[in-house]
Amino acid sequence: MTTAAATMSPEISENRPSLWTRFRKAHGITYVVLSLVGIIWVFPFFWMVLGSLKTQREIMAVPPTLLPKNPTLSNFTQWFTQLHFGNYFINSLVVALVTMLGNLVFCSMVGYALAKIDFAGKNVLFLLVMVTLMVPSVATFIPLFVIISNLHMLNTYFALILPFLTQPIGVFLMRQFMQSIPDALLEAGRIDGAGELRIFFQIVLPQCKPPLATLAVLTFLSSWNNFLWPLVAAQSNKMYTLPVALSLYSTGQNATNYSVLLAGAVLVVTPILLLFVFLQKYFIQGVTMSGIK
User: Fold this and answer.
1) 285 or 42: whose pLDDT is higher?
2) Are residues 206 and 65 in the same domain?
3) Strand, helix or coil for residue 4
4) Is the domain of 167 the same as that of 101?
5) CB neighbours of 259 closer than 8 A, spacing ≥ 6?
6) Other C-beta atoms lying within 10 Å of the C-beta of residue 149
7) Which of 25, 74, 23, 34 lies closest to 259, judged by CA?
8) Which of 44, 83, 66 is nearest to 260 (CA)?
């Protein structure tokens, strides 16, 4: 045995460096590929920020320049002084926040009922929720507009918020996560005399921080970037959201003012990036623990 081990040990010692070298090379290639993909993904945002600091003449220059020769904040000041950015920002913020809060409350309630409460037709109801995920939003656009118009809600916050207070993806996300909560924990609450609402708010919701953060980011992002519905439902300047204002006021009489357009894009993207940075930890946990791929 010792003789065989002695004869094999030189081969093993010779193979180890080669395997380690191959392993390091494979990791090196992976890092290079990921770095290139990251640069390709980040470059448009980098170009957007740099372009927002340029004048229109410099943006249209041939050949194009990467760094601004004379950086200026006039494009941003134009949004605040001439284009009423504050009004559009408040509209977008109100719509996005109320929509997000509504989804957090209602989607979590429906998800709790589908995950932890037995009632007739529960599976059929969940199937309907899943089916609605397959229906494109364009298919419901006209019926939704007719309903809102008949209710005389056009050009109000109600028109911009009510159709999106509960979304199927939020119900699915919360239901998938709440299924992992032990039933014994809920039964202990019922034995102590707690009602369903108390169990929901004091036992279930405190354990749902990751999916709630994920749902908050998804709904806020969807509402903040929503363009087509606010374009139709908001029919005056005072109710325009940022994406609508960005599309309407970046175009002049003869040509598009790209410098102002890029500055507006920076203003629109910044809140989303900040929200994701603050909720990144919970967002990743929610995606990995809820079964969404």
Assistant:
1) 42
2) no
3) helix
4) yes
5) 51, 52, 54, 55, 56, 59, 75
6) 13
7) 74
8) 83
Are 192 and 59 in a shared domain?
no
The per-residue pLDDT of the chain, averaged, comes to 84
Give the tens place of pLDDT for each residue, 235-272. Answer: 888 899 999 988 877 665 556 788 888 888 898 888 88
Which DSSP string corresponds to 148-203?
HHHTT-TTSHHHHHGGGSS-HHHHHHHHHHHTTS-HHHHHHHHHTT--HHHHIIII
DSSP SS3 for 136? coil
Q: What is the pTM of this model?
A: 0.79
pLDDT of residue 257: 80
DSSP character string of 41-67: HHHHHHHHHHHHTS-HHHHT-SS--SS
Residue 155 or 16, more confident: 155
Tell whether 158 and 67 lie within a shared domain. no
Identify the residue whose tokens are 């640069």.
39
Q: Could you tell me if 186 and 113 are in contact, meaning their C-beta atoms sit under 8 angstroms apart?
A: no
* Residue 250 DSSP code: S
- Return the SS3 of 246: helix
Same domain (yes/no): 60, 98: no
Q: Which residue has the tokens 């408040």?
A: 90
Task: Answer with the one of 32, 51, 71 that is the final residue of a domain.
Answer: 71
Q: Higher confidence at residue 5 or residue 64?
A: 64
Sign for the pseudo-dihedral over CA of 204, 205, 206, 211:
positive
Which residue, chain included where needed, has tokens 């770095």?
35
Range of the domain at 43: 21-71
Q: How many domains does the chain have?
A: 2
Q: How far is it, in rounded angstroms, from Cα 286 to Cα 177?
A: 8
Give the residue among 259, 288, 285, 279 at the shortest CA–CA distance from 72: 259
